[in-house]
Amino acid sequence: MYDDFPGGEPRTGCASRLVAGAVWAVLLLGVWLWGRELTDPAPPPGPAHAGAPGSTSGSASGSASGGTSGGASGHAPLPPAEPRRVDIDTAGVHARIIERGLDRDGAVRPPPMDSPDTVGWYADGPAPGEEGVALLVGHLDTERGRAVFHRLPSVRPGDRIGVARDDGRTAEFTVEDVSIAERADFDPHEVYGARRPGRAELRIITCTGVFDRASGSYTANLVVSAHLTGVR
């Protein structure tokens, strides 16, 4: 049933690694690969510091889309409101969003492995639609099979993402680029820094690359970058 798994065995899930910190700017220091269900991931390589959200940044290394796009004009940021659901038609994603925080090791808690169809929102960062970079994370797969973001690699620049919020509004985002952040040259500033000051931006992250059985983790993260272009 899961022919994409080598040897017919399902891969484990993964999550974004975060070095502990009190504010979002500090958390940018260490967002990294998941895989902690099997083993602790290696410390994140790259620069010793990263800019706070709102600083200008380019796309991540190894762009899967071959460049940036998403020329739609932006929409003014919204007041904070908790996200409830994310819809990405082109990836078949129609999922409930749950709040996630940090665990005792300073990593963002991914959605539970027994809830592979949910998406996690890092609740100590900006909310989707709010000024800054909001972070949504989800599993590519689990030990039982495919998970919520298994079709995320099909997303392309120009695709739309809707995030329903508890204020009754749906924040509509347009994808700017889809990129791959390799473990070997991961740069948190490039991946998670704001692309343009004053905007409401969204990053959706899952695993990609090769599943390394020795380390129990994937070799890269898939990063979908989008910005707010409408509200309904």
Short description:
The protein is mainly beta and 232 residues long. The chain is built from two helices and ten strands; from the N terminus they run αββββββββαββ.
Strand proportion? 25-35%
| Strand numbers in spatial order across the main sheet | 1-2-3-4-9-10-8-7
Structural class by helix and strand composition: mainly beta
Q: What's the total helix number?
A: 2
Helix content class: under 10%
Per the principal axes of the C-alpha atoms, what is the gross shape?
A: globular
Provide the residue-averaged pLDDT: 74
Radius of gyration (CA) equals: 16 Å
Main sheet record: 8 strands, mixed, barrel
The topology string of helices and strands comes to HEEEEEEEEHEE
Q: Name the poorly predicted regions.
A: 1-13, 15-71
**Beta-strand segment tally:** 10
Distance between the termini: 39 Å
Question: Would you kindly provide a written description of the structure presented here, covering whatever features stand out?
Answer:
The protein has 232 residues and is mainly β. The chain has 2 helices and 10 strands, in the order H-E-E-E-E-E-E-E-E-H-E-E. An 8-stranded mixed barrel has the order 1-2-3-4-9-10-8-7. Strands 5-6 form a two-stranded antiparallel sheet. Strand 1 (83-88) and strand 2 (93-100) form a beta hairpin. The longest helix has 5 residues, at 188-192. Residues 1-13 and 15-71 have low confidence and may be disordered.
